[in-house]
Amino acid sequence: MKEILTLQFGTYANYVGSHFWNLQDELFNPMYMNQESPEIAQDILFRFTDTPHGPVCHPRVVMFESKGGMGSVTASSLNPIDREAPFDHWRGRVQRVEADTVPKSKYLEYLDDQEEQQGQPAPASAAQPEAAALPDFALDDTVQYWTDYAKYRLHPRNVVELPGIHHDLTPFDLFPHGGSLFDSASMDDTMLENVRWMLEECENISGVHAIVDIDSGFSGVAARVLEWAHDEIPKHPLVTFGVMPHSLREPSPLLQEESRSRRVVNQSLSYHSLLSVSSLFVPLSSSHLTTGSFPGLHLQPSKPFHSSALLAAAIDTATMPYRMSSSALGEMTYFTSLLTSQPEMNVAALSCCLPFPLPRATSLQSFLQHAEGVHLVDWFTPLMSGFRKARLTFPLVQSIMCRGLRNSARVVSDVNGHTTLGKDFAGVWDDYLARVPAAHTSRVVSDVPLPVPVPFPRFFTSRISHAGELLPETEFRGSGEDVVSCPMATQLQVSSAMSPHFEELQQAMKMVQRRTKLQFEKEGIRVDDFLNVDSTLDSLVGAYGSQSYEDFSMEPEDDDE
Question: What is residue 101's three-state secondary structure?
Fold first, then answer.
C-alpha cells in the first residue's frame, strides 16, 4: 500500500475537499466497488480502524480552518475529552469571543437519525440509501459551511482550528497573516502536530496532496507547513492545487478595486512560495466560468457549493491514474515526473469535461468517428483563468483520464444494416488520441464513473440521464429522477496556452497601487519579497511563452550524433 496524505488550507479549500471526500466515500457503495478486485485502491486515501462493529474509515487528511468555520462541527465536538486546547504556555493577550451555536443542516440531522436508528456507526462498506427515498435537503440554497454536506466521518486528528482566528471576525485575508501566525510562539508545533501524527502513521507514504486557498492568509500557513513537509519527506512528490473562488462584488468601485488588488498580490505571493516546494502546482479557479461554461450543467459559479463541486470532481478524476489498483502509470512519483520533465515548468493546467457528451446508446467508437472536425479542446473547459483555448496550441505533455465510458465502448452498432462490435474502450481512445498533436500523451481509462452522491449539487440539466448520458433532443430526464453517476474526462497539461495566465498576472501586479502593497508590507512583506515575486512571474512567462511542442522531446538525446 502506498498512502497519500492530503492537506487542506482554508474555507474554500475545505469546500472543495468536502466534495472530494464525499466522492471517495461514495465509492464504498457496492455498485461502484468490485469486492474481489476494486479498481480504485481506497486505502491510499483512507485510514481504516477495526472496531467491535466492523471497520471504520476516516480520510487521511488534515484540514486547517478558522474557529467557527466548520459551522455546527467543532474540533472539540470531535474530541470531547479535550475540549480546552492546552495553551498554558501562552503569555500574550487573551480575548474572549462568544458565538451562537450553529444549528446542523437538514442533511447532517438526517445522517444523525440514520446512525441512531442503526444503533452503531455504519461499516466502511455500507451501501448508501437510494436517492429517490431521501427527502429534499435543498442544499443548493441552504449551504453555509462546508460541513453542512459532509457525508464522511471525521477523526479528531483531521482538523486543526487556527488559534485566535475566528471565522468572519478576525482579519485573515492577506498572505502574510498566515506566516505571522505560524511564526508566533509555539504555533508551529500546534499546527504541525496532526500532520506529524498522520505522516508517522503511514507505512509507505507515496506523496502529499495539498488543496490551498491562495486568496487568504491560509496560503501563508500552507507555505510554512508545506515547506516543513518538503524538508521532512524530500524524495516524495507534493502536488498542490491552488484554488480560488469566484470573486465577490463589493458595494463600491473603490472597494472592488482594492479587493481585486489584494487578490492579485495574494495569488502572486502564493505562486512564489508554493512553486518552490511543490513537485507539481495546479491553479484552479471558478472566477472565469459562466453559467454556460458546461452545456450539461446549470452551473452557478458564484456559489461556492457549486464551483467547489466542479473542482473536486476534476481533482478526483485527474488523480485517478496513480490511485488505481493496477495502473500503467504506477506511483505518484512517475506521474509527477512525467508532467514536469522540464524543471522550470512545474505548473500544469487542468481542464475537464463534465459530463462527457456521449449520447445514450451510442458507442464511443461511433461517436468519435462522427466527430470529425471536432477538436479535443472543444470538449474540455479549462479551470485555469487566462488559459488560451485554441486548436492550434498543442500540449507539450498531457495526461488524459477518462472514466465511466467502458459500458458504451463496445455497444453493438448498425452499419449498413449489419451489426458489428466496436473496439475496446482503450483501443478507441488510443486511435483518437494518436491524431491529436502533442509531444507526449499519457492515457488512462477506468470503468468507474464519477459517482454523484446525494449531497452533490443537483445542477445537471434535464438533457442528462440518470446515468449521466446525453439524451436525444426530444427526451428529458424525469423531474423526480436524479443523476446518480456520469462519465467524465480530464486533461492535465503543460502547454504554451498557459502563458497568457502568467502574463495577465504579471501585468496585474504592475498595476497594483502602492497603498495595497503597503498593507502587505505592514504585515511583514518586504520590498525584496515583491522583487522576488516579479522574478518568479518573469520566469514563468519566459518558460511557458517560449515553448512549442515540436521542441519538447520526451526522448533521450542520441549520444552517437
Answer: coil
Q: Is the peptide bond before 355 cis (omega within 30 degrees of 0)?
A: yes
Amino acid at 94: V
Secondary structure class of 384 (helix, strand, coil): coil
The residue-averaged pLDDT of 196-215 equals 95
Q: Report which DSSP code applies to 470.
A: B
Helices (H), 340-465: 364-369, 376-379, 406-409, 425-433
Half-sphere exposure of 240 (CA within 13 A, CB side): 28
pLDDT in tens, 400-410: 999 988 655 44
The pLDDT of residue 412 is 37
d(CA 316, CA 153): 18
pLDDT greater than 70 at residue 216: yes
Give dist(CA 454, CA 336) in Å, integer. Answer: 33
DSSP collapsed to 3 states, 297-360: ECCCCCCHHHHHHHHHHHHHHHCHHHCECCCCCCCHHHHHHHHCCCCCCCECEEEEECCCCCEC
Burial call 427-439: b when 16+ CB within 10 Å, e when fewer:
ebbeebbeeeebb
The residue whose grid cell reads 508566533 is 184
The 3-state secondary structure of 175-213, one letter per residue: HHHHHHHHHCCCHHHHHHHHHHHHHHHCCCEEEEEEEEE
User: Distance between CA 445 and CA 183 in Å, rounded?
Assistant: 45
C-alpha 309/C-alpha 191 separation (Å) is 27
Measured N-to-C along each axis, helices 175-183 and 253-275 cross at an angle, to the nearest 10 degrees, of: 50
Asked if residue 236 lies in contact with residue 208, where contact means CB atoms within 8 angstroms, the answer is yes
Q: Is the pLDDT of residue 198 over 50?
A: yes
**Averaged over 264-284, what is the pLDDT?**
97
**Helices 218-232 + 187-201 axis angle, to 10:** 50
- Kind plus residue range of the DSSP H or E element containing 413: strand 412-415
Phi, psi for residue 223 in degrees, rounded to 5: -60, -40
> Which residues on adjacent β-strands are paired with residue 420?
413
All 3 cell numbers of residue 241?
492545487
Q: Choose among 483, 441, 438: nearest CA to 464.
A: 483
**Rounded Cα–Cα distance for residues 317 and 505 (Å):** 28
Task: Measure the CA–CA gap between 313 and 483, rounded to whole angstroms.
Answer: 15
Other Cβ atoms less than 10 A from the Cβ of 171: the count is 9
The pLDDT value recorded for residue 414 is 37
Residue 159 is placed in which grid cell?
482538523
For the record, the C-alpha cell of 41 comes out as 485502491
Q: What is the reported pLDDT for 555?
A: 43
pTM, whole model, 2 decimals? 0.90
Give the single-character DSSP code of 464.
B
Cell of 523: 504585515
What grid cell was written down for 407?
Answer: 459500458
Strand ranges in 447-502 using DSSP code E only, listed in sequence order? 450-451, 485-486, 488-495
In this structure, the number of other CB atoms found within 10 A of the CB of residue 116 comes to 9
